Amino acid sequence: MPRVLVVCPFLFTNENGNRRVNSIKDTVIYNLCIGFTKNGWQPVLISDIQFRPVEKEEYPFEILFLKTRLEYLFPPNRFPFPIGLRKYLKMNRDKFDFVISSEVFMFTSLITRIYVKKKLIVWQELGEHNKMMYKLASKLWYNLIGRTFFRNITVVPRSITAQKFISKYCKNTSKTIIDNSISTDHLRASKEKDNYFISVTQLIKRKQVNTIIDKFYQFYKENKENKENKEYKLYICGEGDERENLCLQIKELGLENVIQLLGQIPHEKLGILWSRAAATLVNTSKDINMVCIIESIACGTPVITNRVPYSASVIVENELGIVSDEWNANTMKQLLNNMDLYIDNCLSYRDSLTNEHIAYLFIKTYLKR
Prior knowledge:
Blueprint: E1 3-7, H1 28-38, E2 42-48, E3 62-66, H2 85-92, E4 98-102, H3 107-116, E5 120-124, H4 136-149, E6 154-157, H5 160-166, E7 196-200, H6 209-225, E8 233-237, H7 243-252, E9 259-263, H8 267-275, E10 280-281, H9 291-298, E11 303-305, H10 312-318, E12 321-323, H11 329-337, H12 339-349, H13 355-368
Parallel strand pairs: 1-2, 1-4, 2-3, 4-5, 5-6, 7-8, 8-9, 10-11, 11-12
Helix pairs in contact: 1-13, 2-3, 6-11
């Protein structure tokens, strides 16, 4: 059986280093590995120990969680320096057909590059310089390490934005864009929609859920003026530090029976709720590739978002919803008036997002090199 090694220190967003999860089975990288198993490959995943789930889990493939060296200098949630990766690669590199490592600007990718060389494919998500040390560390890394060590390494971008950025430094950047992968096993697609919008997000400041509530409030007021219109609700799924403030905001608007904070919902139940939503609402201030966007599309549910997420270009290109930095109540009405078009496009695009398909694209890239 062919084997692939996936090196990714981050399994989910962990901004302050304190976030813990009960399961990693809904993460992008885990589902990529599941996609390889569906294609008849045997994956091995290496990540940082900080991302090991709280509860003990069983996996259909091997996962190694490595500790970080000198955490105060190399924070594991930002720029880890893993203990044991070099030794593992040195002892096991001949056992793998190829290796995928996340991001050029990572010690893990540099170490992997040194020991596996031409077997390496780098999966690039960043589309701009990392702000660490006022971008100086990033600029130095890409110009020196990127241009030399990764000169002949295949780099696969996750978006058009990432492609434009990394191709300045790595001349062997692939023209094929491979987006994040998801499991559609728990995401039921539906063409039938109910009278509610949905937001699936952490309740933290950069997600700007308060602005989503304000925009929905304007839609709700205008929609209610016409008694012939259907009455819509807003369901917000997720937890975070801003929950109390959001509850207060909803109460002040008098929308306790219209806007519901549902908390963290199991993916099986979330998939059902998502599939019946009229649209997913996003208004983040800082995100790259948001899994909630591609999961929404996989449910046949169009997306309204600003231009911040890199996947905004995919939404525009394939008419999977509406992208606007100033989206408002009129935008929501516009989407509802063209629901059939957006839903059909989402359902058509669904298969290209599955973990099986994304893993196949990596295998295809490896075979073509």
